[in-house]
Structures are given as structure tokens and as C-alpha cells.
Amino acid sequence: MRIINTREIVKNIKEMCIEANYKLAFDVEKRIREASQKETSSIGKFVMEQICENMDIAKNDLIPICQDTGMTIVFLKIGQDVHIEGGFLEDAVNEGIRQGYREGYLRKSVVSDPILRKNTMDNTPGVIHYEIVPGDRLEITVAPKGFGSENTSRIYMLKPSDGVEGIKKAVLETVKSAGPNACPPVVVGIGIGGSFEKCAILAKKALIRDLDDFSDKPHIRKLEEELLNEINNLNIGPGGFGGITTALGVKIETYPTHIAGLPVAVNICCHVNRHVTRIL
Amino acid sequence: MDKHIVTPLSKEEIKKLKAGDNVYITGIIYSARDAAHQRIYDALVKNKEVPFTLKNNVIYYMGPTPAKEGKIIGSAGPTTSSRMDKYTPLLLDRGLAGMIGKGYRSKEVIDSMIKNKALYFAAIGGAGALLSKCIKKSKVIAYEDLGTEAVHELYVENFPVIVAIDSDGNNLYEISD
Prior knowledge:
The complex is a heterodimer. By secondary structure, chain A is an alpha/beta fold. Chain A has helices spanning 6-22, 26-38, 42-61, 89-103, 147-150, 163-178, 196-207, 218-232; strands at 2-5, 71-79, 82-85, 127-133, 138-145, 154-158, 186-194, 247-257, 262-269, 276-279. In chain B, 24% of the residues lie in helices and 28% in strands. In chain B, strands 2-3-4-5-7 form a 5-stranded mixed beta barrel.
């Protein structure tokens, strides 16, 4: 059995909140710069150049890349041989968020009740997803999620007979309807299978994958590649003003599902696709 | 074609700007997003005072990250404009000249822009660090309890935007389809 103290969890989550908001992961930054070079529409190129300049300014002047530093999504993969001591795990995660958003000069964008809407002033609580896995490590992923793109995401409860064509239609419809509102170029995370809530979590997990990887299931890898092409053929372009780059990547996660169902979740993320992972 | 304009905006200047123009704004603009719009709208409906003069002025749909010591403002890019669509026709009727944001506007907003001769500018979504450098002064003037959603009076210099929808209703988001 391995003991992990909540002090370590608080410290790491604090640091990860800050890191995620100031510097994009290598694969994301690379795709943005490549897209900027390849873009053919003049207004699209103008937008991509501003986006690239913005990343440089954020890094050099220590300003958050985007002012929407998001609601903090946290994935915890807890090895079943881990014992947490020092306090309640959920409180430690939220304390890490609280400290990160205060010390990192990040925006406080959370309201305590969705109807009454009073700002909690410390960006807590985060949205925490727990998974028990074999072993004695604690893997933490912090993925701040901006809501410009989150608001354009959708879930479709398709019929099995809708098939791959139905899935593609749902994804393209979601991206088209989002248009400029999701700050394209976007990253599209898709969850297929499971249940109503499971496919949504799958889609969020898809968003934190490395943009250079691909599914290990050949039929899903094919769908990822085809959808990336079909989305770019919509020509929504950077900022939604037209162009050849509408999506930087499309990732799909799947899960077994009911004989009567084909749940499909389409989670849109903008080009400021933020996620940091550490293993304790 | 690059155009430089200074706020407040006259109707003559507004009519000269066309969808697709690259514009650089200098002068005072006011930040207001969801919660502030709800309050301003309620105040107008009840004939109460609003935090700033609407006539000929420009609203920026934005909530910034906190400023570090010695800095004017944090990251300050645009938020999605369509969430403010419900409130906008009334603000335009009361003289609001321009709005800076990103993304689609509803037909009701566009019709009101044509009727009142107003402009909708798009700032680059996600370029919060770059845009913050164009903000030379920032002061909270109302609704401080809203935190990032408080109304800020901002002095900007050469703030880069694109005319997304002009006062004739030409819509760059449709033109590029």
C-alpha cells in the first residue's frame, strides 16, 4: 500500500492549473503553427497569425493565453493500492484549484448555483472524475475547460440503424452549428457507446489525448481521419471567417453499449486545448 | 483596408465602415457581459440609471483575468456575443453604437443594428494576451460584486477588430460561407 498525503495533491494541482493556462502542450502548439502556415484564406491566415502571436505574448509576458481560464475539469486515476491521508481528497483537489487560480492570476469563472448564479470567487468547485485503476500511483489530469466551446457541445441518442453515417451527420451538424462561437480551429472529442452520461465523459477524455496519436481500433482510426477531413471541408475556417482549417484534430473514444442504443457525444474544444498530466 | 477610429462613434463614421474592414479602435470602451447586461437591461426597463452613457459608445463583451501587480489588466479577449442577444436590441434603441465580441448574432440584433445604425466588431477569440496589450487603462465603474463580470471602463489604443456586421446588415459570417 502506498500513502499519498493531500499536501502533495494540493501542490501539484495548483501548479498544473497555472501551467495549463500559460503554455499549451507541444502537440497543440505545433498543430496551431502548422495550420497558420498552411492556411490559404487571407482572413483565415490573419486570424491564425494573431493566434500564434498571442501564444508568444502569453509565454513571454506571462499572461494567460485566453481570459476564459475555464471551469477546472480534473481526472483522477487512483491506483487501488493508494491510501490518501491528510484530509478528504475532494477538498484537496478544490484547495489546489483555489490556490492555483489565486496565485496564477486566473479568472474566477464559477457560480455556486446554476439558477442563482453567485460567483464563488475562487473558481471552485472543479468538476472531478474519479477512476480506480490497478497499482499504487495517482495520475492527475487537470484540463481547464472554457465555455465558449463547451456551450456548443451536444449529445445524440442515435439508433443502431443510424450507423457510421448517422454518427458523422451528428458530428458535422454540431461543428457547423457551433461555427465561429467555439473559436475555430477546434479540437473535437467524440464519445460513442456506453450510456447517456458515459458517452459524454468519453468525449471529454478524447479531448485530452495527444493530437498526434490515433485510435488503436482500425475502424475508429479511419473514422477519426475521415471526420477530420470532412470537418475541414466545411470551410468554417479560423474565427469562423472561412478557410481550410476548421479542426486541428478529431479523437474518438468508444465503450460497449446497449443493443438498442448508439449514444454519441460531441465535445467541442477551441484551439486553446489545455491539459496537463502528472503521476504521483 | 485598415481603418482607424476613435470612440465615441458618430452615425456618419458608423455608416462608412463595412463588413470585412480591419479596424483599429482608440478611446474609451466599456466591458459588460452576461450578468452586467442583465442588470443594465433591468435598469433600462425600470427607467433607472445605468453605469455609463450608452449613446455613441461601444461595449466589449469581455471578463478579464486579474491584473498582476503593476499591470493594467490580465488576459482580455472577447466572449461569445450571442449570449447577450436578448438584451441588445433595447441597448441599441437607447443609442449604443457598437459592440465588440465574437460569433453569430441573432436576426433581432441585426435588424436592430440596421434600424439604429450600429456596428458589430469581432475581436479574435482566444487572443486574450495579445488584446490585453492594447488596453492602456482599466477601471471598475459598476457592479464590483460581479468580480470579472463587473463593468470596466477601458481606454484602448489601436485595438484590432474586424467589422463582422455593418450598419446595413452585411454579415461577414455569412459572406464567408
